[in-house]
Queue: 4 jobs
Job 1
Amino acid sequence: MSARKKGSRPPEFGLFLIPEADNYQQLTELTTYAESAGLDLIGVQDHPYQRRFLDTWTLITALAMRTERLTFFPDVANLPLRNPAVLAKSVASLDIMTGGRIHLGLGAGAFWAAIAAMGGYHLSAGESVQTLAEGIAVIRAMWSDERSVRVPGTYHLLAGAHPGPQPQHDPGIWLGAKGPRMLALTGQRADGWLPSAAWAPPEFLTEAGKRIDDAAAAAHRDPRAIRRVYNLSGTITADGTDYGFLEGPPERWVDDLSTLHRDQRIDGFIFWPTEGDPVDQVHRYAELVAPAVRTNVAS
């Protein structure tokens, strides 16, 4: 029996990369493997204050230039430390250079002491949502074909800026949203939602997904137009041991992901293992899990 609902997107599969400077060679090897194995997406976390991390945008650029098919996105870009007008230009530039293979994952920020130490604002929860809303408006204006744009704002604004170049395709803005105000903003203004299994189990997905759908409907938007891309953290066991959700053999993972696609409208799965050899885990995911889920939901 098919696990795919009528009108839902076919699922895409990808990897979640941690941009450790000492691990650059393995990151390039995993990306090359992901391309050859038929995966779709590469997400790279963005924590500029981590001294052992490469700059996320520089890493994405380097990896994207090594590939021909994979789509890349920051998972998620740290807006408090990335000027949205410049970020919009970076996204558009790389989208052109890669032939339309860039999306924008965007976050309101966290670890505020570390952000402030690098010169960013130390914001309250309410201020961070306001800042993100202003950033979204700036980014969309910078992707427009207008000759000059003005966007009012307290933290992020445009005062007669000249947009361009336009991206080759619409990259979309996917929000890493957890709280009620962020979920509402996702429904009102975003193109996608990027929850993580570490803090968003299936029961949370149900409640949060309804908040997003309600906010989208109130804003006269089609809730189903908002993508749901799920960051997966777990272990694909080799000995058949089944510990529960996202902690078991490939068959368990196929069942879990097919159910998420059917019941939660998840259409993107971004994987990073929590235990074991990451290379071996990625091979199991790409060769045993992703193809079986594709077959299951399309049968």
Job 2
Amino acid sequence: MTRRVAVIGGGTSGLACIKSCLDEGLEPVCYESSDDIGGLWKFKENPEPDRASIYHSVIINTSKEMMCFSDFPIPAHFPNYMHNSLIMDYFRMFADHFQLTKHIRFNTKVLQVRQRSDFSDSGQWDVETENKDGKMEKHIFDAVMICIGHHCHPNLPLHDFPGIDTFKGTYFHSRDYKTPEEWRNKKAVVIGIGNSGGDIAVELSRATKQVYLSTRRGAWITNRVADNGLPRDMLYSRKTLLLRQILPFGLTCSMAERKLDNRFDHSLYNLKPKHRYGSNSIA
């Protein structure tokens, strides 16, 4: 008897799990709450509750050589670092090639997952779902794979910003940012120097009257493209990891920091952090 597997989420992980289940002779059923595959990478103008949301210009910071599915290379004519629309094109190619969408139940939410009363013997799970028409169903599965990601709920700690209640401007999480146009000729503050913060600050700098990037500490800024135009993440190999293990930590950090400072002096821009490059870095 074929073992049934519930896959929750039809994004990149969900698609890979469906494919892996089929390779192992299992029967996957994927539940996707939206009307399409892609998860995080499906751009929508209006953010939806309990779903990840990206801005229009997002380009992935992992090269196509390193992010592709091992059994389905990304087309050669695609750029090394792809816009979110091309990532979606690739996902559709992957899903079509391996006929994965027929295993996906779109517009279906998973309400509850729990062990069956005889779980200690059967190892089975009860999965309760609801489709867009409000029809609820219960299913029995031999295994469950959770593929919903971790960018669904924005972190907006307003209690850390005294005076926010009387602030007359507009404030929002980067999840709600889409394009810079509505902020043209205005002043903006971007709080946080992570990937999204850096991206949005650069983009706003081309439209706003003034943009400020606020961060609690400095950061080592690395670019996507390394020496000779190669994607940076392609330079990491077993040899690189071995050298990191052999050489003193301080030495490898100093070498990396010197190279980054050759691109621009972090101290000059008040960005040099107290932590070493090998401790924490921002791509």
Job 3
Amino acid sequence: MRAAVLRDGRMIVRDDVPEPVPGPGQVLVEVKACGICGSDLHFATHGADMLAAGAELEGVPDMDIDLAGDVYMGHEFSAEILDAGPGTEAPAAGTLVTSVPVLISEGGIAPIVYSNSTVGGYAEKMLLSAPLLLPVPNGLSATHAALTEPMAVGLHAVNASRIEPGEAALVVGCGPVGIAIIAALKLGGVETIVASDFSPTRRELAVTMGAHTTLDPAVDSPFHQCRPSVVFEAVGAPGIIDDVLRRAPAGIRLVVAGVCMQPDTVHPFYAITKQISIQFVFGYDASEFASSLRAIAEGEIDVAPMITGTVGLEEVGAAFGDLASPDRHCKVLVTP
């Protein structure tokens, strides 16, 4: 079968990948759509640095990945069930499903993110865990269902903030993560949602997804133009956190959702003096994933404006390059 893999820092297409065979508790699925995530782009360029940083972490499993071999990726997917493993109870063949990106096997649990052996969503077929499957309801399209995973990231950040509807929110950065946060804030009934980004295209999308006001930080600091109670940092670049601590009003809650891979410097004095609470967030839990699918399927979140491109497997490499431009794309879907 065919799959797009990372090889020597470039996405190429292989047509000789063995078709996965489902074991007990697993299903074989045909991938219908898979979103390209910013973390995939970063791994393609900075995979060695990410693995080195991960190896320094205590309390979390090491990422056992060999960059000299092909790397499978793709964790924002929807798929159609083809077959189930021995003795496995699963929805009927032909059912459109999505799932948290985890594969359970007799050998343990493998995240479907980066792997030399576990095939991800940039492939014609892949394996999923039957107990984790969520049938896609309400006739929702495969392309829209594939955005369940990134929208769950935004919902998790909002849930962690404990924001109340009457509190003002400022979202710094309107890439896919920031946009997902804005959608989740709107879903939660937050009455004042302010979005800040240098890109006019991204600011326009922020309004479409639920922001009440947008600000251009090139004109003036967003903190000179609004007084939020909760700030969501969704940029992930060095210096952003410290700038928020320096400029934000006293007593805010800062939720850091942007993944900065470089060393950064902050002045604790800023946060101490203003009594700022800082919450770092990552990923989501299974209930947030299910809630995001339900919200999309019931029309409470319209993800259609986020989808700015669709490519086949042979175009994944070019799409990785195109996504470097913030004015061209928000979310590109791969349809194998």
Job 4
Amino acid sequence: MYFLTPLKCAVFEINCEAFPKQVNFLIDEGMSISKGSNAVISYLHFFDNYGLGEEITRLHCDNCSGQNKNKFVMWYLAWRCIHRLHKSMELYFLVAGHTNFSPDWCFGLFKQRYRRSHITALCDIQEAVRSSSYQNINIPQLVGSEDGQVLVNTYNWQEFLSPYFKPLPQIKNYHHMRFNCDHPGVIFAKQYADSKEVSFSLLKDPTTLPPLELPLPLAPPGLSEQRIQYLYNNIRQFCAQDHRADLTCPILWGF
């Protein structure tokens, strides 16, 4: 197994430190559209399902520009405040070298359980997340099932927001950002906590606001024929010979 490539499952975590609870999005290989901002924003849109009606939100994340620190995430937070889904949203990027925080703690609990579990299917990973703590801190959320059923949509936020917003210049220099519903489309940013705050309007036209409706969902790519054949020929022999093997490494049918 060391030299083989089993079915992959990505994990994206959002932690609410006030409870504490962590939602772990489990992304089956066939459901993985991208690891970029479209996916991150779609999972961050979890406020609709896991939110508590909070009006003020403070978010902490690392400085990964491809996923977190980019113009599309800024536009999404501005969009939420424009439509008063939140009155205020604050975004803090951790300083390099100090990026270990609560999601790493909860992921560590899951990793310990994963190492002691027999994993042959996505449902086994889901159970490993659920049972990784006695206080039900880790919450599993499947993005989709092995049979192709989509449970959490990935939306085309980039195409949806681009006509209305413009990028923040020198975005990588800032670590503290905030948005307020009383200033639609305006981002307030500071380089560090004790730096002078600057403001910048992200709207291309302040008289034209983005709609409240959601973007179009992106269809998951699924597994290629070559990948399905690889799993069947090389991985199925290591799976428990039950229905889970049919989900993870489906039987090939020839004509």
